[in-house]
Specification:
The protein is an all-alpha fold and 148 residues long. 74% of the residues lie in helices and 0% in strands. The protein is built from 6 helices and no strands. Helix 1 runs antiparallel to helix 3, helix 3 packs antiparallel against helix 5 and helix 5 packs antiparallel against helix 6. The longest helix is centred in the last third of the chain and has 27 residues. It is globular, with a radius of gyration of 18 Å. The two termini are 23 Å apart.
Length: 148
C-alpha cells in the first residue's frame, strides 16, 4: 500500500527538488536525440566515429536512452523508506542494476575508447578504470542481495 509519511525532513525535500531538476536536465538532453539523427549536438563533434564505425551510434543511443531510466530507478529505490514503498525497492533495484551492468556501462566503455585526449589517459585511467570500479561495485551489490 502506498502511504506517505507526514514528516519528511527538509533535506529529503531538497533531495527531491534536486532530483527533479537533474531529471529535467537529463530528459532535455535525451530528447535532443529524438528522432535519431547523427548530425545533432554531441554527435557533431564525433563525426569521424559516426561515419567510420556504424556500431558507434548503437552504443551511443543505448547509453543516452538508458541514462534517464538509470536516474529514475536509482532515485525511486532511495525513496522506499520515506514513502512506504518497501516492495518497490527490490524491483527498482533490479531495473537499476540491469540498466547499469547490461546497457549503460558496456556502451559507455565502448564510447570511452573514442574519447578525446591522450591514448593512455582516455583509455586506461579514466574510462577503463571507472568502468571496472562501477561494474565491480554493482556486481557486488547484485550478488549480495537476495534472489536477484
Amino acid at each position: 500500500m502506498l502511504s506517505a509519511k507526514r514528516n519528511i525532513p527538509f533535506f529529503k525535500i531538497l533531495l527531491i527538488i534536486g532530483f527533479v531538476y537533474f531529471f529535467w536536465l537529463m530528459l532535455s538532453i535525451t530528447l535532443e536525440y529524438i528522432p535519431l539523427d547523427p548530425n545533432v549536438s554531441f554527435l557533431m563533434i564525433k563525426q569521424t566515429e559516426v561515419e567510420q564505425r556504424p556500431e558507434y551510434l548503437y552504443f551511443f543511443y543505448t547509453h543516452v536512452y538508458t541514462s534517464i531510466f538509470v536516474l529514475l530507478s536509482g532515485f525511486l529505490a532511495i525513496l522506499r523508506k520515506d514513502f512506504g514503498w518497501k516492495s518497490s525497492h527490490r524491483n527498482t533495484g533490479k531495473v537499476y542494476i540491469f540498466l547499469i551492468l547490461i546497457l549503460a556501462a558496456p556502451s559507455g566503455i565502448y564510447m570511452g575508447f573514442f574519447a578525446n585526449g591522450g591514448l593512455f589517459f582516455k583509455n586506461f585511467i579514466c574510462y577503463t578504470g571507472l568502468f571496472m570500479v562501477v561494474f565491480y561495485l554493482q556486481s557486488l551489490s547484485a550478488s549480495k542481495t537476495k534472489k536477484i
